[in-house]
Amino acid sequence: AANKYEQRQSDPRGNSYGEYRNMKQDKLDQQLSSAKQSELFKDLLIMLNGRLEPSASYLRQLIGQHGGQVVFQYTSGVTHMICQNLSASKFNIFSKRKIPIMYPKWVLMCVEQQKLIDTNDFIIQEIAEKLDIQQQTQISPIFQISQLNQSQFLEQQKQTEEEKQVLQLIESTQTTALVSSVLQPLNISQLSQLSPLSGTSPQAFYNVNRQVPQPQENTVQRYHESSRLHQLTQFKLNAQEFLIKNPPYGPKPTDTARPLFIHIDIDCFFCQASFLKLPTSKQQQLHGYPLAVSSNIKNASNSTADISSCNYTARRLGVHNGMWVSQAVQKCPNLQLLEYDFDFYNKLSLQFYDILRQFSSDIMPISCDEAYLKLSGIYTQQEDIKIIKQKIYSQLQLSTTIGLGENLIQARIATKLAKPNGFMFLNKEVFQQVIKDKQVDFLPQIGFKITEELKNMNIFTVEDLQNADIKLLRENFGEVKGQNLLNEANGVDFLLFQPIQNLLKQKSLQVSKNFNVRISQISVFKQLVFELLQELNQRSTDRQLKLNKLSITVNVAAANNKQFMKKMGCGVCNQVRSTIFIHKKCDQCVEELVDSVVNKIKMEDVRGVDVMGFVGEVKNIVQSKELGQNAQKKVEFWEKLQQQSQNTAEKQEIISCDDYFDALQQIDDQDVANALRKVFSAQCLCRGNLEEAFKLGIDGVEDMFEDKWRWL
DNA sequence: CTAGTGTGGTAGC
DNA sequence: GATCGCTACCACACTAG
């Protein structure tokens, strides 16, 4: 397979694969325009997103034949968006811009009927409903818990009208989730039934499609769509976003002498969710079998696909997460493999958090299916807490495990011990009892490397760790880590409970591809970096983060690269990194970024690339050495400005004010005064709501500036 | 000593 | 023909000044 891929990369018809692709594209475009059949899509710019059925290349061809234009990335002027799956954030972007989102079926049906069908009939239902849930949740009646006494709250949990409404709400969405396969685009045979008048048989189109090579754009995006680890991180971010927009409204924990925490985790989340997606008959058939979620593969006994989640039957038979499918079926020949359904996982995750919102106002999300809750003093009975489990089960059919403890680590360990479908309370004494004989890697934060290191120190069990010499631990692991290890072993928290409302601004973001990367030409490498940067740009824009620094990491095959390697994986690699400062959109930095590493690597050894962006707080930007020797004065100026706007709503705006940012970038070291004048004018004039600026006019602004100037 | 940069480890399924 | 090895964040070693 690798050989074939490389042959394609060095196709003799072009100097590089990219050029070859362009030639091919031109040729294709010519063919298409010559085969133009109608002007149906004239003046439309249609964006194709993600994996499509029929395929993107086929749709492109079809749209081209009928006079339309196609793009694969969002650009201004896009009139329609075609997709099957779409993240909530992207959905928001398109719906905000009032760009209709349609299934590919729309294109086919327009062509069939030779008219532009009303887009309202096609806007993706499932996603629209997901958005509806969020809106409804926001306006749904909120329990005024603080005004209720404790028993009233618990009573309300069981009985109130609001409760019924919430239940109905979630039940209705759940039905949608379970039948969502109904909403998938129609297949070809269904289509021909719908449009018997068609002149050209859809089947014919479909066959043409088979001969058109798949376009190579969006390799990063396509890859991410089926990468479980990518999805997993996005789900977590989605959950955080959801909680910020829909704050928890449960009872407010009071400062009691003895706070309680729960740790809640959905048991083998992906596995349960994928199971729920099966038809009932299949579910009955698989009942009691060992199950695992993995990419759908034909040759399980040879596959190096990862098991991403497996049920507890499978675990008892020796299967575990992260194992290769081939190893798993060797241990457990009856293992039944289930398919991923990432959209469904995401949906369940948000519903999970929607339920948790009722139970505490202090929630700390850990991942898409796992959170800590700080409990108020009203939970006095274990039964009160089990209500959470029951609710999640009755509303989502997902079994969970809850650990209860006086601190986070106790709760966390309790969950681990009680899995699956369990509940456990640990206090200090019981914790000591249950933990002491466990291997050290039973504790969180102790992974492969630290286990190895501890082995070298003759520390194997938690009890060994408890008795270890703190000086030695600190020496070997550092001050903090060493102390943390000891704390963990003794059931003392080192993780701080941080409810969602304390969430700090994201500091960095990164986009990686370290799978199926085999490169022979620098142009291909550039294309990959470009795509990664585009994605980075997209994400930072979506999340309104301003990046001031970019870093690139290239994974380069090490001498023992092939050892333990997944077939298309990156194997053992050395990392080559480099960092640059940026003044422009990050997808315009390809050349600079590539240049910074290209001399240190051989293209044929590249096994993966990772670009990271650092969020530039204006304060940090001001401090960065890019601003040169007068940075200190500029910082002071900035801080003064901050103080000025301290008590106004403008503070936030000033932080994100692009003009301000740009002006700062242009500050001239030779003449700080002038530069700051520029900055300050820009600040005033670019923002209409700085009232004084308008009242005083230009001269007034100058005076104002002089006024602010004195402190410099 | 300080501030900035580079490196490595862990977590979720 | 393979089957999706991501990503945020922390701590600390190191370096320049």
Automatic annotation (TrEMBL):
Residues 36-124 form the BRCT domain. GO terms for cellular component: nucleus. Residues 261-447 form the UmuC domain. SMART domains: BRCT (SM00292). It comes from the Eukaryota. InterPro entries: BRCT_dom, BRCT_dom_sf, DNA/RNA_pol_sf, DNA_methylase_N6_adenine_CS, DNA_pol_Y-fam_lit_finger_sf, IMS_HHH_1, Rev_trsase/Diguanyl_cyclase, UmuC. Pfam families: BRCT_2, IMS, IMS_HHH_1. Residues 1-20 are annotated as: Disordered. GO terms for biological process: DNA repair; error-free translesion synthesis; error-prone translesion synthesis; methylation. PROSITE patterns: BRCT, N6_MTASE, UMUC. The keyword Cell membrane does not apply. GO terms for molecular function: damaged DNA binding; deoxycytidyl transferase activity; DNA-directed DNA polymerase activity; methyltransferase activity. Keywords: DNA synthesis. Residues 1-11 have a biased composition (Basic and acidic residues). The keyword Transferase does not apply. PANTHER family: DNA REPAIR PROTEIN REV1. This is DNA repair protein. It comes from Trepomonas sp. PC1. The lineage of its organism: Eukaryota, Metamonada, Diplomonadida, Hexamitidae, Hexamitinae.
